[in-house]
Write a structure and sequence with these properties.
alpha/beta, Rossmann fold, 9-stranded mixed β-sheet, 4-stranded mixed β-sheet, about 30% strand
């Protein structure tokens, strides 16, 4: 039986993510785990996250998961969610600079919209996502579908080709990225009703190729 490991590093919407995956992929083994051996043995990986990226990196280090997460992202179907997407990049502006996993080139600046005096931070609620690349995880999801966001920082890839979904909140920012076996979202598919569940179902069937 195919196993999807949902990485537990003390942060993240673990139960919501796992329950959503169980709903869309009842024949798969959905396993919340903080064990490196489980992550190594699983066929697919979900790297969720909420809150501060600095805490995310600290917890990964303390639980000795940094290496195994990096290795898994190199070749397994890999889904990052929210902070789990931000952590894939080189560094984040939070806490006057936080070193991330450096799996993908780019930075994680703070949304500037509070300076405009129009919108508030965090960006919280439903927003449209424009699909910029045809990808298997967008299958059966209409372009400009609405997804649920909660974040104050956003990813800024060095390579524009990494962006496969974009959103506008005062500025246009990257809402989803993809490269090879990696797909990641700034929004929370587990909180995004029908389209979010469709994305998770697509991931459960994805072999990691585009």
């Amino acid at each position: 039986m195919t196993t999807i490991a949902v990485i537990d590093y003390g942060m993240g919407n673990l139960r919501s993510v796992s329950k959503a995956l169980e709903h869309v992929a009842p024949k798969l083994n959905i396993k919340i785990t903080s064990r490196a051996e489980d992550i190594e043995q699983a066929e697919k990986i979900v790297f969720p996250g909420v809150g501060a990226i600095s805490h995310c990196m600290q917890e990964l280090e303390q639980r000795q998961l940094t290496k195994i997460v990096t290795e898994a992202a190199a070749y397994k179907p890999f889904l990052g969610i929210c902070v789990g997407m931000q952590a894939l990049f080189t560094s984040a502006a939070e806490n006057e600079g936080t070193q991330a996993l450096d799996i993908l080139p780019g930075s994680v600046p703070k949304l500037p919209v509070a300076d405009l005096g129009v919108l508030s931070i965090p960006h919280m609620g439903w927003n449209n996502v424009k699909q910029t690349i045809d990808h298997p995880l967008w299958q059966n999801i209409e372009n400009n579908a609405r997804f649920y966001f909660v974040h104050s920082y956003y990813v800024k890839p060095d390579e524009p080709s990494l962006t496969c979904g974009a959103c506008n909140y005062g500025i246009e920012f990257t809402a989803a990225i993809c490269r090879g076996n990696i797909f990641a979202t700034q929004f929370h598919p587990e909180k995004s009703q029908h389209d979010g569940l469709q994305l998770l179902e697509n991931f459960s069937k994805w072999d990691g190729t585009c």
